[in-house]
Amino acid sequence: MFATSAFGQVGTSSLSSQITEYTFASHPAKADFKEMGHPQNLLDSSGYTYAQGERPLWEVAPESHEIPLGDIARAIRKEHESTKKATATWQN
Fold first, then answer.
1. How crowded is the C-beta side of 3, counted as CA atoms within 13 Å?
2. What is the per-residue burial (b if ≥16 Cβ within 10 Å, else e) of 25-40?
3. From the CB of residue 67, how many other CB atoms can be counted at a distance below 10 Å?
4. Is residue 53 left, alpha or beta, with left meaning phi > 0 and alpha meaning psi from -120 to 50?
5. First vs last Cα of the chain: how many Å apart?
6. Chain segment 31-78, per-residue pLDDT in tens
7. CA-to-CA distance for 1 and 7, rounded, in angstroms?
8. Nearest-CA neighbor of 82 among 74, 90, 92, 70?
9. pTM beyond 0.70
10. Distances 66 to 11, 40, 71 between C-alpha atoms, Å
11. Interatomic CA distance for residues 55 and 57, integer angstroms
12. What distances in angstroms separate CA 74 from CA 12, 15, 80, one per listed residue?
């Protein structure tokens, strides 16, 4: 474990503070002007529908029934009281 950490420290001390310039490969064919492709209809087999307006959230979202935090705490306390306690004790 110590050898690994020592190697990591030696490796970082040998880094140079000189600026390194990166050169990226050029792809001149990607920037040429080309004709646009032919348009494609994505809705070939389906019908076209149109709607306008907004629906209120109470029409769309399912109802959520939240349990109050106090009820959750009481249920956990009851469960804790009813669980089996340890019978053995250790003394050193």
1. 0
2. eeeeeeeeeeeeeeee
3. 8
4. left
5. 34
6. 667 788 888 777 666 666 777 888 888 888 888 889 999 999 999 999
7. 10
8. 74
9. no
10. 55, 48, 11
11. 6
12. 56, 60, 10
